[in-house]
Model the fold of this input.
Amino acid sequence: MNTSASIAASSPGGRLEKTHLRLGFVALSDAAPLVAAKLLEFGHAHGLTLELQRQPSWAAVRDKLLAGDLDAAHALYGLVYGVQLGLGGPRTDMAVLMVLNRNGQAVTLSNRLADALAEHGSLPKALATFGRKPVFAQTFPTGTHAMWLYYWLASQGVDPLRDIESVVIPPPQMVAALAEDKLDGLCVGEPWNALAEAQGVGTTVAYTSEVWPDHPEKVLACRRDFVDANPNATRALVQTMLEACRWLDGAGHREEIARWLARPDYIGIDEAAIAARLGVGARFAAVAPGIPPVRFFDDGAATYPHPFEGAWFLTQFERWGMIDARTDYAQIATRINQTQLYREAAARVNVAVPGEDVTRVLIDGEVWGSGTASAAYARRFPIRR
Done:
């Protein structure tokens, strides 16, 4: 199919407003959909050429999205919602186009803390042996890793606002900080937890899919004015990424993407560390039996941007004192998450849209789902601001 024909085919409502899109990503295994989309040029069938731009941190992703240097990005779910509310930077209307993956993050402790936990049997008792406030790292103040870390700590009886010091470190710098004894624990995406274990500087003690089974993690995000100005190009981008996510579920494709992600332009570490927790063969099941692995597609169930999932992050912002209590979390999430655009894109590439009636039980027994009232949810927790 020639370029003009593919442009027309991908946008019945008109030609694509842009055909060259700049996409940002951070060096993590869950950037796999973007890497697959680029290397296999899935965009060409939809009139798009993709340019991937690796970013050193999530703050850089945020800043370049806001400046217009990036058209869209692999982004932390909570980062997008934080920008929408103006937390830690300029308030800008944002858009979540689709979920890029579920699960695939973990909590890793220093060897000293892991040994103390094994000896004393509970995290509060282990931390009491330190004689100082322990230091835990996450990757962005409103990001998913901060929320998973705080939720996990609270489920273990540790107050993340009072009992620890929380610091922000970009994912690729986490393992070195742990090795240099600057950290007692961290929450980050793979492959950095796997690398910490491989280098003998840390022990993974919890997976975020234990905190919230099949939780949403990274999303494809952009500014809302980009969607408004480029609806056809945005829809074509979602179609492209859906095809990349579907490809990742194919036989042998996780092994292939692990090899590609190991390249210096993407993650730049040993392929084995990437593959170990990417759900390749039986490897992850052997490492973490019974724990849900990273999911990229799952017949379309993994990629749909449920607004109720976005609203959960708002309840956690309230819980930890980042925002005052509000009653419009569902409305905010409905504005951010582009469900109609997603449905249109999914229909064009034959991807089924899952049902809206979803309920999850989190690690502490709390239930969150499409029917959960969010107004008082944050105030139900015994550990909060």
